[in-house]
Amino acid sequence: MKKFLNNLISLLEASDKSLIIISLVLLVQCFINLFYPSALTKQAENIDIVFRRSIAAIFGYFISSNFINRKQKQNTSTQNNTDTQNNNDTQNISNKSPNISKNFQIVFVSIVGITSLIVLIIARDFVSIFEGDLQTIDLLKDLVSGATGFLMGFNSSKNN
Description:
The protein has six helices and no strands.
């Protein structure tokens, strides 16, 4: 599994790797705020809104077809710029890349969805939820719903 994840991550662009790191930091921040609430000032509330919007936007990018389409365009342009000797190697990589990108989408969306679901279960059953936590709860519900919808849509589009 570790080798599989390393292979997927090694094929990602630097911007995608950065987005993953940012999204993980934002998710951890949301979880911390949920389980260790503090008195919110108006400024802290505004910052939390930016956190929630950012994680939702990043998650939307990774479940969108733009992520896959960008990878396919990059591989096509790379293939057109190579010489004849390297053409076979590039073609093999570009033939595999859409599948690798789709696999990455599935892994990333699954991790975010499952983690959000576990945190929601813990919050529901073991933690007192305060009024200030409702926006974070809404975000986590949206992430679980988005992940479920993506994975169901991916399976149905694969069968067609």
